[in-house]
Write a structure and sequence with these properties.
Blueprint: H1 2-14, E1 27-32, H2 35-45, E2 51-53, E3 62-69, E4 72-80, E5 87-90, H3 92-95, E6 110-113, H4 119-129, E7 134-138, H5 143-159, E8 164-167, H6 175-183, H7 190-221, H8 223-226, H9 237-253, E9 258-268, E10 271-277, H10 285-297, E11 301-313, H11 321-332, H12 336-348, H13 368-374, H14 382-390, H15 420-436, E12 441-452, E13 455-466, E14 491-492, E15 496-503, H16 512-521, H17 530-539, E16 543-545, E17 551-553, H18 555-566, H19 575-588, H20 594-614, H21 616-627, H22 636-639, E18 648-649, E19 656-661, E20 673-677, H23 688-699
Parallel strand pairs: 1-4, 1-7, 7-8
Antiparallel strand pairs: 2-3, 3-4, 5-6, 9-10, 9-15, 10-13, 11-12, 11-14, 12-13, 16-17, 18-19, 19-20
Helix pairs in contact: 4-5, 5-7, 7-19, 7-20, 9-17, 11-12, 11-16, 12-15, 18-21, 20-23
The structure holds 2-acetamido-2-deoxy-beta-D-glucopyranose (3 copies).
């Protein structure tokens, strides 16, 4: 299904600019995602002869040159943004933490604006676009990049509505890729950008509602420990935290079991052969002892079976983002966030291809021999690269995943002057690439099976015949294991026959690589965001790292997950978020509309929120296991001032509703607030859903 899914993604991406009237263009504004990328692209377009001048932002320069583009010679004005140019937030009445009931945030109006520190960049764009007839978007070719592209388009079109707009598509900042992109300008893809808008809006609403609810509540309830603590919620953060807690609890719940086994050894001239029991182990001591005693009655071994077969150790698959993060974390001990930061830098400097990719198959049109050739000059792996070329050229292994947008991560330029982790990561990417283009390691495995009193034991020997890729890939080990020649039918006296015991051991705490694997498996976040979510739960103190760099949940993290679990709501489970991610993919593919996804997802999370608030006592209980008794049950008036007016739409009749306090303090269950239509002076018509929520809150003496 991955193939199917991504095929339509590729359609999104390759929609060409055919039929667009391109005439009378003298000057083209080009905008990249970062200054480094702008400089690199301008350097290529101008053959290193661009002119540089200042923009309003001192971090985002302007580079100028001439280039043949859109069928004519044009003046190119190349500049950049610094990631997203615009931001979203609630409108003023909802922005302050105490301004409204957090439930309102699911429907409150949101506005898009340019933050103060990006105004200079915006002003540069607005000034430069005046003289241009066309705009070419050169942001990174992924979802965020497409969205940033539309931010740039909106800013530019606002001052120049007649502007013609194009999108350059590229996976690396190298002369070949940049020139090809110029010859194949396409249209930006609104659907991909829409998916990002949806994600941003949902993250804002869901994150703000739950974060305010949790933070304000627990700061009040546990003032001694949590008074200053931001207790954030995010629909990716929580399942990520959930994985860490789940593993921790599995370890806590683990009961070790004793097991017993029989072990046979046989010394020879070059060492000792270990024979392992074909039953592996038994959990019944008596049973094991009986078998052991039978062996000991006549401990002579008969060789019953000798096998010999070729064994291969497979060279690595082409590198995608998730593998890069996992391998860098395991083999280089560079964490995912740092890895992606370095990889992005190497990409903008033209050393490697775009590091955010789900593809592990090299496209047919990629010139692999050239890429291998580039590495032959290196003193360490150059000879290996040359050997690949001399022995018939690259023979890349192929995976099964393709996003049809970017090739696997590979080196695009030789770098001999990098330092520190930049160098280590670059070296890893090169070695991985060369290993993948080489051959599997080959060996011959021998198997010897012996019989003692009808119990069978096996030993393996390995002779490595050709190390192949292992010569360039020190991150994996494979070693010879020498065993002497045995003859079928022969008998010998083992050196030892022992009965040993052991204990089953619990699983280990998660490493970062384990955590990324789980996130990927359950669809939490994307390859572009795994590292950020992990960073967030660390910075919120929900989890910490052991000295072995394994994730351990903190008290706050434990309390939150246990509390939400106790509600029966799967907040810390991955399903809710995975559904959201799947919907975002459908938007990109043009198979689901933005507005539909927004409506459905907001409704879904709002229901969860209402329920969570109603059952908030479960959270209090879970947290009080760690932070002591609840010291003070606040009234909601202490936390939230009167609601702004009007505050929300009635989900039943869709009219604006405001919250009113009843004069007599309520009746029956103690309802003292009701929602009434904002403009109606008539008898309050109480919306049943809201009333129910309020009843629950009152009955349980709860607050937001
Ligand atoms: C880009 O344009 C060139 C020349 O115009 C053409 O040969 C090539 O096939 C195009 N590449 C893509 C990926 O469309
Ligand atoms: C252990 O094995 C012995 C001998 O086979 C058997 O009699 C006994 O029932 C087993 N005990 C358990 C707990 O299974
Ligand atoms: C974008 O999505 C809409 C439906 O939401 C679809 O009709 C349209 O074809 C899509 N466009 C592209 C370029 O995929």
């Amino acid at each position: 299904w991955i193939g199917l899914l991504f095929r339509s993604w590729s359609l999104c991406f390759s929609q060409a600019a055919e039929g667009t009237m391109v005439r009378n263009i003298q000057k083209v504004l080009c905008v990249a995602e970062k200054n480094d990328a702008a400089r690199g692209i301008a350097d290529i377009l101008s053959n290193s002869r661009m002119r540089r001048r200042e923009g309003f932002s001192r971090f985002n320069k302007i580079y100028e040159c001439q280039y043949h583009m859109l069928g004519q010679n044009v003046a190119v004005v190349m500049t950049s943004v610094s990631g997203h140019l615009l931001a979203q937030d609630f409108k003023i009445p909802f922005r302050k933490w105490h301004s409204c009931n957090p439930l309102v945030l699911f429907d409150a109006e949101i506005e898009t604006f340019c933050p103060e520190n990006y105004m200079d960049i915006k002003r540069t764009l607005e000034r430069e676009v005046q003289q241009c007839q066309a705009l070419v978007i050169w942001t990174d070719c992924d979802r965020e990049g497409e969205n940033i592209g539309f931010e740039i388009i909106n800013v530019c079109k606002a001052v120049k509505p007649s502007l013609q707009v194009f999108r350059a598509r590229f996976s690396e900042i190298t002369p070949g890729a940049i020139r090809t992109a110029c010859e194949n300008l396409t249209q930006p893809n609104q659907n991909i950008s829409d998916a990002v808008d949806v994600r941003q809006e949902l993250d804002l609403r869901i994150g703000a509602a739950f974060t305010r609810f949790q933070t304000l509540r627990f700061q009040k309830l546990f003032p001694n420990v949590l008074a200053e603590q931001l207790i954030s919620y995010g629909s990716c953060q929580f399942p990520t935290l959930g994985f860490v807690v789940e593993r921790f609890k599995a370890i806590q719940a683990f009961v070790p079991e004793l097991f017993y086994k029989i072990k046979v050894t046989h010394d020879h001239e070059e060492g000792t052969v270990d024979f392992s029991w074909k039953r592996n182990r038994l959990f019944n001591h008596t049973a094991c002892l009986v078998l052991y005693q039978m062996c000991m009655e006549d401990p002579v071994a008969t060789v019953v079976e000798i096998g010999s077969r070729p064994r291969s150790k497979w060279r690595p698959l082409p590198l995608d983002t998730v593998e890069l993060e996992k391998l860098a974390s395991r083999k280089l001990k560079i964490n995912a966030k740092e890895t992606m930061k370095i990889a992005e830098k190497l990409y903008t400097q033209g050393y490697i291809s775009y590091p955010r990719t789900e593809t592990n198959i090299f496209p047919k049109d990629l010139n692999l021999p050239n890429l291998v050739q580039l590495q032959t000059q290196d003193p360490h792996w150059g000879a290996f690269a040359q050997r690949i070329l001399d022995q018939g050229g690259p023979t890349p292994r192929s995976g099964t995943k393709s996003d049809q947008a970017h090739p696997p991560i590979h080196p695009t330029k030789y770098a001999g002057n990098l330092q520190g982790n930049d160098q280590r990561l670059y070296e890893f990417i090169v070695r991985h690439f060369l290993a993948c283009c080489s051959q599997d390691a080959k060996g011959q495995e021998t198997t010897v099976e012996i019989d003692i009193a009808n119990e069978r034991f096996v030993a393996h020997g390995l002779m490595i015949l050709a190390r192949n890729y292992l010569d360039v890939y020190p991150y994996e080990k494979w070693s010879d294991k020498v065993i002497p020649v045995y003859e079928r039918g022969s008998r010998f006296q083992p050196t030892t026959v022992e009965m040993t015991d052991g204990e089953t051991s619990p699983p280990q705490l998660l490493t970062e690589a384990d955590l990324i694997s789980l996130m990927e498996k359950h669809g939490i976040g994307t390859d572009a965001t795994h590292a950020e979510h992990i960073e967030t739960i660390k910075s919120r103190m929900y989890v910490g790292l052991t000295p072995e760099q394994r994730f351990l949940p903190g008290e706050l993290g434990m309390g939150l997950v246990e509390g939400y679990d106790a509600m029966g709501y799967e907040m810390s489970k991955p399903d809710l978020r995975a559904e959201l991610e799947a919907d975002l993919k459908l938007i990109c593919e043009g198979r689901k509309e933005k507005s539909v996804v927004l409506r459905e997802q907001i409704q879904k999370y709002k229901r969860v929120f209402i329920e969570a608030v109603a059952k908030a006592k479960k959270l209090d209980e879970a947290l009080s296991q760690y932070f002591g008794e609840v010291t003070h049950v606040a009234q909601e008036e202490e936390i939230y001032p009167a609601m702004p007016d009007p505050v929300r739409k009635c989900p039943q009749c869709n009219s604006d509703m405001v919250l009113k306090t009843k004069k007599n303090g309520g009746h029956g269950g103690g309802i003292c607030h009701v929602w009434i239509p904002a403009r109606s002076k008539a008898v309050p018509s109480v919306c049943p859903i809201i009333t129910q929520l309020w009843v629950n809150m009152r009955v349980n003496n709860l607050t937001f």
